Amino acid sequence: MNQFILLLLVTGVRGLNLDYLDPTKLQTKASPTVQRNAALRIIQSISAHQAVEIEVDPTLFSDKKDVFSLKTSKDKLIIRASSGVAAVWGFNHFLKNYCKSQIAWQVQRVTIPSTLPEVDETVVANDRFRYYQNVCTVSYSFLWWKVKEWTTHVAWMALNGINLALAPVAQEAAWAKVYRQLGMTEQEIDQHFTGPAFLSWLRMGNVHGWGGPLPKSWHEGQKNIQKNIVELMFELGIVPVFPAFSGHVPKAFERIFPNTTLYSVVKWNRFDEDYCCGLYLDPNDPLFKRISKMFLTEVTGGTDTGHIYTSDPFNEVKIQPWSTSLVRDTARAIHTSLSEFDEKSVWLLQNWMFVSDPVMWPMARVKTLLTSVPNGRLLLLDLQSEQWPQYNLYDMYYGQPFIWSMLHNFGATLGMFGNIVTINKDVYEARSQNGSTMIGIGLTPEGINQNYVVYDLMLESAWRKGPVVDMEAWAREYARRRYGCDAASEAWKYLLKSVYSFNSLNKMRGKYVVTRRPSFRLKPWAWYKSSDLMEALKNFVYINDTNCDCEGFKYDLVDVTRQALQYRAEQLYLKVLIDRYSTVKTLNATIIQFLDAMQDMSLILSESEHFSAINWVKDASAWATNLSELNTYELNAKNQITLWGPKGEITDYACKQWAEMFLYYYIPRWSLFLNTFLEAQANDNVWNEKTTQDYIRVVVEETFTTRPFDKITPSMDVRVLAVKLYEKWASIVLDDLPMSMVKVDSGKRTTFADVDFSSEVDDPTVVMLWSTTPIV
Ligand SMILES: *[C@@H]1O[C@H](CO)[C@@H](O)[C@H](O)[C@H]1NC(C)=O
Ligand SMILES: *[C@@H]1O[C@H](CO)[C@@H](O)[C@H](O)[C@H]1NC(C)=O
Ligand SMILES: *[C@@H]1O[C@H](CO)[C@@H](O)[C@H](O)[C@H]1NC(C)=O
Ligand SMILES: *[C@@H]1O[C@H](CO)[C@@H](O)[C@H](O)[C@H]1NC(C)=O
Ligand SMILES: *[C@@H]1O[C@H](CO)[C@@H](O)[C@H](O)[C@H]1NC(C)=O
């Protein structure tokens, strides 16, 4: 304790130094004309007929923050902006607020009236940065994209003012060259790289080898993406974040550098010897700087960078022997090698390890890490600020700037939820807090293509001067933009009240009874009432306004129906648990009903392309140039969303509520599990849960990866089906699910020791401690 007080006294709070993050130095690689043209191209691709005039003028930056102004004159929209990205952002502001349109990830509705509304508005961004991406997003959501999809996505970033984002770069192609120069054999390189679906974790030192070897077509394709997309980002004034060396090295280094100190990395999740436990290079060895420089030179290809580099040496890894001096030396080595490569460098670091393992990260060690880098040369991502904010725990990170980020989902798992209340409040409070070092907002989801509403709201906190006061009115507008009609206001009132009101400390991992491995020990929970969700569904299915006939409406109709059935299935699961002690007949009836709910989920999901597993697999196979590559790509696609590892190391972590997944994976395993139990009950036979699970592993889970499956075609009109399912399931009366246990009172946080995570002990992922108060 004394030591802690002393530390505070000695160091004190340091002032914020933002010289290295000045946007007029970072966002101006491309000339105003180039930025203007890039912005115009995006705008014209959205609305070819609209007359839009753009001026990009970097002197418009206000207090180093992006600015745009919109003005309509006659039939023309005039945009003046500090950067290309700000101009496109301004255009979307116009579309959203004056034309009631929406350009979301999966659906878009753009309607510009022939007589333009009168507009004269200037918007100054609240912060220096709008940041985008988690280090995992590329593996869960962008995995199979090619230049075309990336280009569309960069346009989406610009439309939302995102001016700092991870660049898609051909990291492994660069590493392969570096490794060869260092003396690794082709075989060693092949054994090191994972397959495409697991690269995020290879890069952070969590796993190696699984799903590989990485095909040649992959490297070529990634190089092509890098070339096109990084250039596009520069043209728009978006800062592309390049990767840097973190210290994790392949096992072959033991052979090549026998005299170098190599630390060992402890097993991550359940990966065994073949795939786990890489090596960590002594940060004091001159080799650290040498490799760092080789990699940066190779990966940037000698071209400009955005001066901001990402490196996560400690993300869910335990390095042994572990010490504060290793932490300090690593921080210094990463910073020094970066600044020797680029004197303007800033190191971007995720704060995740402080959240996930507070025992490894007592307060003094966190402070050592963050203060070993000169002030302003480190930029922190407060990664899941909506649930586990860390900026206050670590004294606004001791003067280093940070970005308030919403992580929202893990593994791109599907299910409707969001922390609307928190994100509409905490962002504004953190920004205006005395001594705040917050310099941006960010989206850091592990995956996208879901719950667009929370991302849309979060992005608005980049320019709104205060929280949305009337959230129901805001949701009404959101629905109007998305559907083009007003009929869904009532439905959205109930969605706000139910799925989007999450505000608890329970870990939100997107795994529900239906998508989890069958067991009688699951403990479903919820934070809202079944009746509120059913009201939302009712108000959706009875909408009979042809103005609402659009992709966005259909998407949400499917999603809400799915969500209501998911809730019903969990209630029925609890009934199954009870009925195990009843008659075989009663139990049989409940089981049939539970499986029927899953069957209906599959039916409703098959109504929309967006909820099909087919594209995921098809896009993967499109990368293949021969049969062995095809096998690799398909294995990667299927394994990631099911077993996640050769032996189900983190089974279902990235599960997907897609139609075919229900038909070929979730229903078969629950059906086997429950029906073998029922048979045993009927015949007075012994039944063993573990044996049954092992059997399911072989006949369903492992088989899924190797067998092709067909797309499920819709059975009837989506609205007819939704009404039918609503009427079938609404009338069934069952108890609500147990509520989540801990509520977050504003300003009063609970320590992890007070949080009862017992409902999550069956979670097959590693049970971790979650920090809300640091250990001194
Ligand atoms: C397929 O392509 C890979 C390169 O990724 C090559 O190593 C392999 O030999 C090829 N296999 C066949 C069957 O042509
Ligand atoms: C390692 O050190 C030993 C003993 O000092 C020396 O003989 C050997 O050449 C060194 N090996 C390498 C690869 O530097
Ligand atoms: C902010 O902190 C400074 C220094 O601790 C103090 O002088 C000032 O009064 C505080 N301002 C507010 C609004 O609390
Ligand atoms: C929807 O409205 C049309 C015309 O107003 C009517 O004919 C039809 O029966 C309505 N459908 C439902 C399901 O209410
Ligand atoms: C369960 O019910 C179904 C449908 O009525 C029936 O076909 C099946 O034999 C029953 N199973 C048992 C074990 O009673």
Structural account:
GO terms for molecular function: hydrolase activity. Residues 1-15 form the signal peptide. This is Putative alpha-N-acetyl glucosaminidase. InterPro entries: Hex-like_dom2, NAGLU, NAGLU_C, NAGLU_N, NAGLU_tim-barrel. There is one protein chain. The chain is of the alpha/beta class and 776 residues long. The chain has 3 domains: 14-124, 2-Layer Sandwich (Chitobiase, domain 2); 129-465, Alpha-Beta Barrel (TIM Barrel); 492-612 and 658-729, Four Helix Bundle (Hemerythrin (Met), subunit A) (Up-down Bundle), CATH 1.20.120.670. The protein contains 29 helices and 18 strands. Strands 7-8-9-13-15-16-17-18 form an 8-stranded parallel β-barrel, surrounded by 5 helices. Strand 2 and strand 3 form a beta hairpin. Mean pLDDT is 93; it is low at 1-13 and 743-774. It binds 2-acetamido-2-deoxy-beta-D-glucopyranose (5 copies). One 2-acetamido-2-deoxy-beta-D-glucopyranose is lined by residues 215-217, 626-629.
Please give the structural blueprint:
Blueprint: H1 2-11, H2 23-26, H3 32-46, E1 51-56, E2 67-73, E3 76-81, H4 84-99, E4 102-103, E5 108-109, E6 120-124, E7 129-132, H5 137-140, H6 147-159, E8 164-166, H7 171-181, H8 186-192, H9 199-203, H10 216-236, E9 239-243, E10 248-249, H11 253-256, E11 262-265, E12 279-281, H12 286-300, E13 308-310, E14 319-320, H13 324-341, E15 346-350, H14 352-356, H15 363-371, E16 378-382, H16 395-398, E17 402-406, H17 420-423, H18 426-432, E18 438-443, H19 452-460, H20 471-483, H21 489-497, H22 530-541, H23 551-579, H24 584-605, H25 614-621, H26 627-640, H27 659-682, H28 689-706, H29 718-730
Parallel strand pairs: 1-3, 7-8, 7-18, 8-9, 9-13, 13-15, 15-16, 16-17, 17-18
Antiparallel strand pairs: 2-3, 2-6, 4-5, 10-12, 11-12, 11-14
